[in-house]
Specification:
- By secondary structure, this protein is an alpha+beta fold.
- It has a domain of about 200 residues: Metallo-beta-lactamase, Chain A (4-Layer Sandwich), CATH 3.60.15.
- Strands 1-2-3-4-5-6-7-8 form an 8-stranded mixed beta sheet. Strands 9-10-11-12-15-16 form a 6-stranded mixed beta sheet.
- It is globular and about 55 Å long.
């Protein structure tokens, strides 16, 4: 599915597990003049301390899972809803994203799509930048986007109007730089920022409240940010995920996607970074977030 595809996201009927929310997207088949629509649904599964494992399924119960750090939440959801696992997608090698793969493969002999990295021994299909993951059931087509920064081999998957960003882009924040450089991460974020505004961001951690506190120190006058953070607090108070969220919302509120906005440039100037250097501004912002305590 090309990068111009769109999806409609809305609350979907169903009985989610505690702490879960079910969302619906529409996958469009651009190969036919009378574009057919196939509903696919998103289910974020809370796992470990603050991870989300993403399940995507169609109306026939065919499912894929993204970044299963644990197998038990996935197995629970599959059994509860009567879904059949068809594939596993991995964004990077960290154990909180791949720790459940072996357990799932023991019960579900499915392909595992992952970047070419020796630290992901369970991968059966290696993916690369601008490649595709095309599945018949559920019928989806994801473009692979290389996003080095958090790790050197990190990838994201975009399709059906949904972006599985792993630990590269968070709501109101971005991932730490464990293996990449500020220049690499900024380039990765710049690429993701070009996706359609109605793209639904599905990241792998519930960091939104903490990220929002830092973002408000950078742009205290950003009314869209204040509104988003109030919404997030309401959701979390009701034990609901703050995700997915539209990329348009992130472009209006996330300081790491707003490196060229005057308020962010001013913040960097106050922190002694030359405002003309985008990479230096990003590095300054990321370093400040690394030591920030609300």
């Amino acid at each position: 599915m090309p990068l111009t595809d769109r999806a409609r996201i809305a609350t979907s009927a169903g009985s989610p597990l505690p702490g879960e929310a079910i969302w619906q997207a529409v996958s469009r088949d651009g190969t036919h003049p009378m574009q057919t629509e196939r509903a696919v649904h998103l289910l974020p599964l809370p796992a470990l301390a603050d991870n989300y494992i993403w399940l995507l399924h169609d109306d026939n119960g065919q499912a894929i899972v993204v970044d299963p750090g644990q197998s038990a939440p996935v197995e629970h959801a599959l059994i509860k809803h009567g879904w059949q696992l068809r594939a596993i997608l991995l964004t990077h090698h960290h154990d909180d994203h791949i720790g459940g793969v072996a357990g799932l493969l023991a019960n579900h002999p499915v392909p595992v799509y992952a970047p070419d990295d020796a630290r992901i021994p369970s991968a059966s299909v290696h993916v690369a930048d601008r490649g595709h993951v095309r599945l018949a059931a559920p019928q989806v087509d994801f473009e692979v986007i290389a996003v080095p920064g958090h790790t050197r081999s990190h990838v994201a998957y975009y399709g059906a109007g949904v972006l599985f960003a792993g630990d590269t882009l968070f709501s109101l924040g971005c991932g730490r730089l464990f293996e990449g450089t500020p220049a690499q991460m900024l380039t990765s974020l710049d690429r993701l920022a070009t996706l359609p505004g109605d793209t639904q961001l599905c990241c792998a951690h519930e960091y939104t409240v903490a990220n929002g506190r830092f973002a408000q120190t950078v742009e205290p006058g950003n009314t869209a940010l204040a509104a988003r953070l109030a919404e997030v607090r309401r959701l979390r108070d009701n034990h609901q995920p703050s995700l997915p969220v539209s990329l348009a919302s992130e472009l209006a509120t996330n300081p790491f996607l707003r490196i060229d906005v005057p308020a962010v440039i001013d913040w960097c100037r106050r922190h002694h970074q030359p405002p003309a250097d985008r990479t230096a501004r990003f590095a300054c912002l990321r370093a400040a977030k690394d030591v920030f305590h609300a």
